Each structure stands twice: as structure tokens, then as C-alpha cells.
Amino acid sequence: MKSFKVFISAVGVLCGCIVSQSFASVIFEEQFNQLDAGVWVRENVDGAQWNYSSNYGGTITATSHTNFTNQYTDILSYKNDFADFIFSWKYMITNSGPYNDRRLVYFRSAQGSPSPSGYVVYIGADTPEAPQNWVAIHRLDPSLVGMSASAAVTWQFNTWYNFELEASGYDFRLKVWQDGLEKPDTWLVEVTDTAAMYSEGSIGFGNFMHAGTYVDNILVETIETPIPEPASCFLTAVSIIAVGLKKLKK
């Protein structure tokens, strides 16, 4: 009877390893064959607006503005319950603009004035007046001095970059790599919001002033649960059997 219990325990470990395997599932996907008004809501300020473009097989773009006022334009998903996820997208910067031209990628955000609330990936392209080749993760406080972490990136204009953002609880981390290059193993930016401000919201994109930008290949997935190594499971089961047999001999 004891030997049977030992066998059942070992089988349970192996089955548990198999059952515990899980894979990421798609929450949201957008390839931009059009700009679907039922999926995205646009904020239009001073004539600046995100639009569909047939360039690069279908993208959305916010082009350079024509005057020198402080302009912005945002686009957010109507879906507003993104919580924990892996959010990836492709991004191209076409110009720096003559001023401190910023780009934002919103997550766990909500519409607001003068700009949405929530968290952002903040992309700064170099300008003669304000050198700022970097990327950051911010919490959108009024003065933008809340939770923040950044890293230097030397952006190349008219070049696609891949972004991957993980939001797990209030821990956020980001990878960025040039299209065609190997995805890095390490995270470029990591930060925790100890204030735990925003638990869910929309995703979207923001463009300021004279920034020229293209966006494509949006994918939001669940966070993949680590899969136990088969060898580790097997060794655990063998250990249980060995211990059980040792006890039976006593």
C-alpha cells in the first residue's frame, strides 16, 4: 500500500508539471489595414490628428504639424480594461522636429484634459535645442515628476524599432531593439509604481508638436506563466520514489 502511495505521489508531480504549463493568449491585435473608428478614439488639437496610411503595408501616422504652437494629438483604444499584459508594437520616428518634440505610448490610460491619465512610454528624439535621445516609463502626473525610469537610446530616423512592454501588477519593464536585429535578453527600463495608481485602462499613442511618427503591428498578450523544465519534474518524481523506497526498507 505504501509503495502504491509513493507511485501515486510521483505520478502527481509529473502530471502537475504538465498541467501547469500555460501559454500566452492574445488579448488585442491591430495591423492597421484601416483606422477603425469603433476601435480607436482620436483627440484632435489644432489640426493635428492620427490617420491611417497605406505606407509600409498599412500603418497609422501622425505627421509633422505646420505651425509652431504647442500641439498634441492622441489616439486611445476604446477597450479600457487592459491590466496585466505584454504589449508590443513597431515604431518609426521620421524626424526630430525643431523643438522638444515628444512621443508617448499610453497604457492603463483614460481620456482626459489636457492629456490622458495613466502610464506612458516616453520617447525623446534628439533635437539641437533639447538633446534627448532616450526612452522612459512615466506615470502621468500633472508635472510629470512621478514614477519614472529611463535609458539612453540613439534613435535612427526612418528606421523601424520593436518595443515590448510588460505590465505585471505595478512592475513595468521595457525592451527596445532595431527591426532586423535580435531581441535582447535583458530589459532596458524597469520601474515600480509604489503608489499603485492605475490598475487598468486603455492603450494608445500620443504625438507632440512637430514629431513625425509611424506605428504598426500592435499586439497585447497575457503574461506567459513559466513552464517547469521537464528534467526538473522528472528528477523530483525520481526523488520521491527513492525516498519512498528507502522508507519501505526500514
UniProtKB/TrEMBL annotation:
It holds the Pfam family 3keto-disac_hyd. Keywords: Signal. Transmembrane segments: none annotated. Residues 1-24 form the signal peptide. Residues 39-206 form the 3-keto-alpha-glucoside-1,2-lyase/3-keto-2-hydroxy-glucal hydratase domain. InterPro entries: AL/BT2_dom. One of its GO terms (molecular function) is hydrolase activity. The keyword Cytoplasm does not apply. It comes from the Bacteria. This is DUF1080 domain-containing protein.
